[in-house]
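This part of the workshop introduces the protein records we will be handling. Getting from the letters to the tokens is the skill we practise here. An example says more than a description, so a record of this kind follows:
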Amino acid sequence: MAGTVGERVRWGILATGGIAASFTHDLLELPDAEVVAVASRTEEGARAFADRFGIPRAHGDWASLAADEDVDVVYVATPHAAHRAAAGLCLEGGRAVLCEKAFTVNAAEAAELVALARARGLFLMEAMWTYCHPLVRRMRELVADGAIGEVRSVHADFGIDGPFPATHRLRDPAQGGGALLDLGVYPVAFAHLFLGAPSGISARSVLSEEGVDLQTAAVLSYESGALAVLHCAMNAHTPVTASVTGTEGRLEVPHGFFHPDRFVLHRNGREPETVVADPQWGRRDSLHHEAVEVMRCLRAKETESPLVPLDGSLAVMRTLDAIRAQVGVRYPGEAR
């Protein structure tokens, strides 16, 4: 890693799209975070982003950011298909990495990144902000404490209405397009959070002309007898809700389950309890919770987060791979 992490953690931003802008905006609201550099494929793109956010250094290539000794951690915000190359370059340069979800386009690439980080003793985390959200963490605590008994089912859904033109990254196989990796990763990760990796998977999709999934539904089965019923779409605006049902109650999350502002705890024989987000946590769509966890880990010299463990990210990628194999979505370079 680039030296000892001080009171202010120094961030580099790799890519300059919408999610990079959102994350940078939220970083700048944290008093112990400092954004010191940004990289793009062009000097012009990096400089425009740097000027927008007051970032002192703009790199016109990824390698320069990876070699920047003044950067403690790099946030990788490229499309999925570039995650392996971008995050790998930063790890090879000695930088800690927070890499957007889906972690990579497939489990093999994810395993390569994890092996590289572990071999070099560097911090690596998938940017699964849902796992870092205080309300989701509270839900997990309640389930672990037996508040709803043994989990029997998880339901989760995430759909947006588009429509997206054929030139959009979500419809481009070369960029890891499709609903599953961009949106379905949330329902899959939510199911993994409460049930772990499944023992069986059954999936169906509606594919675009380009061969990516417009809509996917999957049922995950578990040796415990539990089921997870999951859905994602980029051709229909769905409720975006989730629930976890157990033998003694259930948790219901209204719209926006991946960054909730409340959830309802139903316990058999009791009145429902609504748990609301603390206003001090800021906007419900803030990405700062994952940034705070990264900085905590770096100061504690931890190479992975207990909230978003690397083995968990690998397990989610394996589930996504299995779903894609069933529905026939393959990306350039993958074996047929």
